[in-house]
Specification:
The chain is mostly beta strands. It is built from no helices and 14 strands. It has strands at 2-3, 6-7, 24-29, 39-41, 45-49, 59-61, 63-72, 89-94, 99-103, 109-114, 117-123, 132-134, 138-143, 150-158. The strands form four sheets. The protein has a four-stranded antiparallel beta sheet, with no helix packed on it. Strands 10-7-14-12 form a four-stranded mixed beta sheet, with no helix packed on it. The protein is rod-shaped, with a radius of gyration of 25 Å.
């Protein structure tokens, strides 16, 4: 928690204290330093500090986006078993340009916690084998309901290849 040029960390109970502040308006800034499992700060707010007082800093509940990256085998594929689904970065970019990201596990599953808002959710192809591409690598989501589940699937398909068929003359 930061007030002007003073910064303190909360204790295990989430309590922090500032001493000997002069009376005045302060912008209370806070940052979450650990994975909050879907809880987000409500924003920085100006507060009049004029006595010894307790200030509660609210958190708001966000929503979880879950999903997976699934590989689809082409008809004549030989190297399909070698595709690695882990390590694909999936990012939700908010209308305020805030980015929330997750990484797929070895089964291709991911989860991202985001606050309410409008997002473009992208899957990065930078860790994907060059012979594959996403059928759709971006989705638009309007997240406005804490009771809703948001699940996305990104399909990896093999890029089209040209088959050369040679015919031999039996004469």
């Amino acid at each position: 928690i930061k007030l002007k040029d003073q910064t303190v960390l909360t204790d295990l109970d989430g309590v922090a204290s500032f001493e000997n502040l002069t009376t005045g308006n302060y912008l209370v800034e806070s940052n979450l330093l650990t994975d909050s499992e879907g809880w987000f700060k409500a924003g920085n707010s100006p507060v009049l500090m004029n006595k010894s007082q307790t200030l509660l800093i609210p958190l708001t509940r966000g929503v979880q986006i879950i999903g997976s990256v699934i590989a689809q085998k082409a008809t004549y594929s030989r190297s399909f078993d070698s595709i690695k689904l882990s390590g694909v970065r999936v990012s939700a970019i908010g209308s305020d340009d805030q980015v929330y990201s997750g990484i797929t596990d070895k089964a291709g599953k991911f989860k991202i916690f985001v606050p309410f808002g409008k997002y473009t959710v992208d899957a990065s192809s930078s860790t994907i084998d060059e012979q594959f591409q996403f059928a759709q690598d971006s989705y638009e989501l309007n997240i406005d309901n804490a009771d809703s589940n948001y699940e996305l699937t990104f399909y990896l398909i093999e890029k089209k290849r040209k088959l050369n068929i040679k015919k031999f003359d039996n004469n």
